[in-house]
Amino acid sequence: MPRSIHGGRHELGQNFLTHRPTLGRITTIVRGTSGSILELGAGDGALTRSLAELGRPVTAIDIDEHRVRRLRGRLPSVRVEHADATRHPLDADVVVGNIPFHLTTPILRRLLSTGRWREAVLLTQWEVARKRAGVGGGTMLTAQSAPWFEFALEGRVPAWGFSPQPSVDGGLLSITRRGSPLVPVAERRAHEGFVRAMFTARGATLDAVVATAGRVARSRARQALAAAGAADTRLPRDLGPEQWAGLWQQIGRPV
Predict the structure, then answer these.
(1) Looking at the domain 9-177, which fold is it?
(2) What are residue 179's phi and psi, to 5 degrees?
(3) DSSP states of the chain as a string?
(4) Residues 81, 88 contacting (CB under 8 angstroms)
(5) pLDDT for res 30
(6) Which of 56, 217, 34, 59 lies closest to 118 in space, CA to CA?
(7) Residue 7 predicted with pLDDT over 90
(8) Higher confidence at residue 145 or residue 1?
(9) Which amino acid positions bind S-adenosyl-L-methionine, per UniProt (predicted)?
(10) Does the pLDDT of residue 6 top 50, yes or no?
(11) CATH code of the region 185-252
(12) Where are the domains of the chain?
């Protein structure tokens, strides 16, 4: 195949998914959703074919113009567009993608801040998927988004299940927009700032961290942790979505 004007597979960060169990798993998850589908990074269409068989509107995008042209010929029922996943509107009900590993963070940040989608199924690096799902402790990005989105780890993909083979395994991450947010959308920016302060504040214990981040006395911090059901929690990364929301209600929310 001719080289894209954007570079070859290495420059584009393309590791095409060939692992059939994962292709089947993604299709099964998407089958359980409803509405239009947007696939990010369609590549040669290994997943696109299965999505097209669901009988729903499918738009597939890819940055490689040659693969776009070939996929249009192979799958006439799919709307195939030459587009960049970091810029294309996220205007479908379901977003699916085998994300270039080096673009995982910017694409994920964009996904969590724009678009009208309800469900997302992303194939990322294993450690990224694991951390976003809160396995072994949550990250700041996950905590900032948790009042509006639910994250789940759907499986691990061996490195040999990609072509060319990357140096690390992949992880399948699903994200669902909450029907009833734990924190009002209007307070999202302020809540994100509160979470950032929690993750960056100094303190040997969580009540000390809360006191610093919330600018309250240690006694008030302990009361807030107890009210949020987090009295025995050790670190900010160990807090669950409901506990974050509880702390926000107790001391983070502007009066």
Answers:
(1) Rossmann fold (3.40.50)
(2) -70, -35
(3) -PPBTTB-HHHHT--EE--HHHHHHHHHHHHTS-S-EEEE--TTSHHHHHHHTTTS-EEEEES-HHHHHHHHHH-TTSEEEE--TTTS---SSEEEEE--GGGHHHHHHHHTTS---SEEEEEEEHHHHHHHTTTTS--HHHHHHTTTEEEEEEEEE-GGGEES--SS-EEEEEEEE-SS-SS-GGGHHHHHHHHHHHHH---SSHHHHHHHHHT--HHHHHHHHHHTT-TT--SGGG--HHHHHHHIIIIIS--
(4) yes
(5) 98
(6) 34
(7) no
(8) 145
(9) 15, 17, 41, 62, 84, 98
(10) no
(11) 1.10.8
(12) 9-177, 185-252
- Which residues are annotated as part of the binding site for S-adenosyl-L-methionine? 15, 17, 41, 62, 84, 98
Q: Do residues 133 and 124 touch, judged by C-beta distance below 8 A? A: no
Report yes or no: 183 and 247 within 8 Å, Cβ to Cβ. Answer: no
- Sort 11 into a burial class: Cβ within 10 Å, 0-12 / 13-18 / 19+: exposed
Per-residue confidence at 14, pLDDT binned at 50, 70, 90? confident
Cα angle: 121, vertex 138, 28; to 5 degrees: 20
Report pLDDT digits (tens) over 122-156: 999 999 999 999 888 888 999 999 999 999 999 99
Residues belonging to the chain: 255
Q: Which residues are annotated as a binding site?
A: 15, 17, 41, 62, 84, 98
Assigned token pair, 250: 């107790």
